[in-house]
Amino acid sequence: MGLTNIRLGDYIERSTKNNKDLKYGSDLIAGVSSQGVFTIPKGNIDGVNLKPYKIVENGAFVYNPTRLELGSIAYRTEGLCIVSHLYMIFYLTDKGKKIINPIWLYIYFRRAEFCREVTFRNFGSQRPEFNFNDICDIVIPLPDIEIQKKYVNVYNAMLKNQKNYENGLEDLKLVCDAYIDKLKHLKEKVPIGEFVVQIDNRNKEKLSYSFKGLSMDNYFIDSIADSNGLNFSNYKIVEPSEYGAVLMKVGRDGRLTIARNDSKESYLISPAYYTFKTVGIDSDYFMANVNRLEFERRGWFSCDTSARGSLSWGEFLDLPIPNASKKEQSIIAELHKVFILRTEINEKLKAQIKDICPILIKGSIEEAKKTKEA
Question: How far apart are CA 170 and CA 163, in angstroms?
Fold first, then answer.
């Protein structure tokens, strides 16, 4: 066959099967990130109506129609889950399975070129939304399925290596958490307020620091807020080794977001966030404690009953951690440092996998062209 241009819609079928019988619970809810993977929702899902949620089974492609240009499309291989009714779900038809390797198609979607095509097709729309008809109209240069498999094998080998590394990362996190759990039962607990000093350093001189937000995974990220017209003189400065905390939506998100500035530059963050430094405690020991799910649950329990579920500064300072000795702190601190380092390496491995997607697709297409010419 060599290389053939196909209209994707001729080989896929949409699924709208939902959870109307409430057969599946909130433990099966998943979302799709811009990294092209399924994620566990981080917000508070108490009281959410699960009937309209769509059922996803292995072999499904799931994407967010309003964020597809950012790469929010994933391929399901981890078993059944349910996703928001706003998501689009489709499967390869029996006809499609004969000529399209689903992982090859997923690699095709993971390229920046595909995201640019989505953006181009959405151009001029008041509310860009890439619906099922739009994705059906995509024309794909398709190599022979045997050529597809060859390049999928390369992708799978890299993915397996990254997953093995990630599994070791999870084991390291378990060791760190287990040590802290042991200390909980051996040591008295002390409120973090004994080690926290609030800072309120405003950007009155209007210096051009990097404008940052806080990820729910507890690190600083480039802010996604529109900075046009903002008066940064009231924004808070976070110096290296200082912390930022988001306390105004703990109840809504079910998360307590705390990040440390591990860079050598100063950041600007929203005046609605808190900034502080720690004294009399190993900073890595502190971070290992406050980034635990258990600590976040305590924060969630202590927040108010407003729509967002805010945690007051005073309640935050009252949250407890084990009062460990310097030696015990240093052991956990070293584990935490290694965990952070390996997390960064893991993220680089993920980036390499994404970066190789366009290379694999280009290679498969060029090989198919040569086969066709021959």
Answer: 10
Cα atoms found within 13 Å of the Cα of residue 133, Cβ hemisphere only: 2
Nearest to 274 by CA among 302, 304, 244: 244
Q: Could you tell me the end-to-end alpha-carbon distance of the chain, in angstroms, rounded to an integer?
A: 11
Q: With contact defined as beta carbons under 8 Å apart, do 150 and 364 qualify?
A: yes
Amino acid 274: pLDDT: 94
Number of domains in the chain: 2
CATH label of the domain that carries residue 66: 3.90.220.20
Higher pLDDT, 107 or 166: 107
Residue 130 structural domain: 3-143
Question: Rounded to whole angstroms, how far apart are CA atoms 66 and 122?
Answer: 10
Does residue 367 sit within a domain? no
Partners of 367 in the β-ladder: none
Burial class (CB in 10 A: 0-12, 13-18, 19+), 70: middle
pLDDT, tens digit (0-9, with 9 covering 90-100), for 129-151 = 899 999 999 999 999 999 999 99
